[in-house]
Design goal:
With about 230 residues, this protein is mainly α. The protein has one domain. The protein has 9 helices and no strands. Helix 2 runs parallel beside helix 8, helix 3 runs antiparallel to helix 7 and helix 4 packs antiparallel against helix 6. The radius of gyration is 22 Å and the shape is elongated. The chain starts with a helix and ends with a helix.
């Protein structure tokens, strides 16, 4: 009995909906791959920042005192902690919405789509929650990695001539870069979670939103003014 009803509900998702959702996840994966592994000669902001992070850790070896560096890593952890809390709240709000059919019905009325079954809204919200959950998990791991980086930085000898000084600094740099990679991936998931919200209005708004999200991410990573500053050698 339940199966035919489920199939009937799925009929509310047309071909355009399926295409839009497929493009949503394809865009999320492809732009992430392009940012982390850009074509030769077209480094993204994220890749450029890796070199600066590694240079930071090598400069850190000879800096005295090192309070400035500890303040930076603490700032990075606080920023990551904020996004952990924000995504956790968003997940809680989404789950609360899924558990209250009356709220979903009210949402449908607000969007003038009263003829759409509640299960359709639930599926749309679940898709958004999947992206937010992915962001939450990446932010949590990034926060922990920044903590590991802080410990590795503390293990760097104060004497630059110590044979362990630069190897320890390189270890700290690698962990710092990995933390930043997870943080950036979490941000991209947040971007696409927000980009998935227009699906509540229909497939066409979702398609337009996916295109806009991919364009914004591409521009900020490959054509922004900040990237030009990072490439400047003087």
């Amino acid at each position: 009995m339940d199966s035919p009803i489920g199939l009937a509900h799925l009929l509310h998702f047309g071909t355009l909906d399926c295409v839009a959702v497929a493009l949503l996840f394809a865009g999320w994966l492809v732009i992430g791959r392009a940012i982390e592994h850009p074509p030769h000669g077209k480094a993204s902001v994220s890749v450029l920042m890796r070199d600066f992070r590694r240079q930071w850790m090598r400069e850190f070896v000879t800096r005295s005192p090192r309070i400035f560096d500890s303040a930076i890593i603490d700032s990075l952890r606080q920023g990551t902690s904020f996004f952990v809390s924000a995504t956790m709240i968003a997940i809680g709000g989404g789950l609360a919405l899924l558990g209250n059919a009356d709220q979903l019905s009210g949402l449908a009325r607000d969007l003038t789509q009263t003829g759409v079954p509640t299960v359709v809204w639930e599926i749309k919200i679940i898709v958004i929650l999947l992206l937010v959950t992915d962001a939450f998990l990446k932010f949590v791991w990034a926060h922990r990695l920044f903590g590991y980086c802080a410990i590795l930085m503390a293990a760097v000898p104060n004497d630059p001539n110590d044979p362990d000084a630069y190897p320890r600094a390189d270890q700290a740099a690698d962990v710092n870069i990995q933390a930043a990679r997870n943080f950036n991936a979490g941000l991209r998931s947040v971007y696409f979670a927000l980009g998935a919200l227009p699906w509540l209005l229909g497939a066409l708004p979702l398609l337009a939103s996916v295109a806009a999200t991919v364009w914004v991410l591409w521009r900020r990573e490959f054509a922004s003014r900040s990237r030009m500053v990072m490439l400047r050698r003087t």
